[in-house]
Amino acid sequence: YLISENLWQLRELPRRLVAAGDRVYATLGYGRPVVAIDAATGEILRTYQGTDNAHEIVCADGRLYVVVSEPVTADTPTTGAVLREFPVWRGSYLEYTTKYMDKHVRVFDADTGREIWQKTDRDVKTVLPLTLIVSDGRVFFQNESALIALDAASGEQLWRTDRPSIHQRYAWLVPTVVAVDGVVLSADRAKDKPRLPDKEAKA
Q1: Pairing assessment for the beta strands 146-151 and 157-162 based on DSSP bridges
Q2: In sequence order, which residues have a C-beta less than 8 Å from that of residue 1 and are 6 or more positions away?
Q3: Run of H or E residues at 12
Q4: pTM for this one?
């Protein structure tokens, strides 16, 4: 999944800070694991194993649903080259293409830290940013080709429907997925729209 501009970490930042009751769940830095914090004192109460490089945290019904991937670093083979550089009102602006590392979803008991289930198959490898939601005992997410529903307690797939998506987009251009009154809505750029301008068009 190619993404232009390295803004994805900033885009996902609000999804890595969740308050529920007297607990705050967050990552204390890029690439860091998810921790539970006492909301009154700031004391770290628990670290959730296997959540390094968490992208998103959703808390629902006493469970944490976490989207995790391997980190993209300077020497990662999937890191792309600079496409263009041009001045802005402050400093310069770089635009380049990079590829998300494969993702997976892990679910934990929020109070004990016990892992309940995880999903590591091809469906979640390309889960699109900010599309993981939990509603009425169901988990919904969108990947490059489909909108998928899982049982929130077990991770078992309940249904899927085709939802083709573009493979290259700006980091701030992500789908919106919401669930209300038993209906799931997905808003995204149409797949047949033009891709990002090619290198010649940028010249």
Answers
A1: antiparallel
A2: 99, 100, 126, 128, 144, 167
A3: helix 8-12
A4: 0.80
Instruction: Give me the percent of the chain exceeding a pLDDT of 90.
Output: 53
Tokens representing residue 62 in the block: 């006493």
Question: What is the DSSP code (8-state) at residue 15?
Answer: G
Answer for the pair 21, 62: CB distance below 8 angstroms, yes or no. Answer: no
Report the C-alpha gap between 151 and 153 in whole angstroms: 6
Encode pLDDT of 22-41 as tens digits.
Answer: 999 999 988 899 999 999 99
Separation between Cα atoms, residue 58 and residue 35, nearest integer Å: 13
CB proximity list for 183: less than 8 A, separation 6 or greater? none
Tokens standing for residue 66? 């976490």
SS3 185: strand
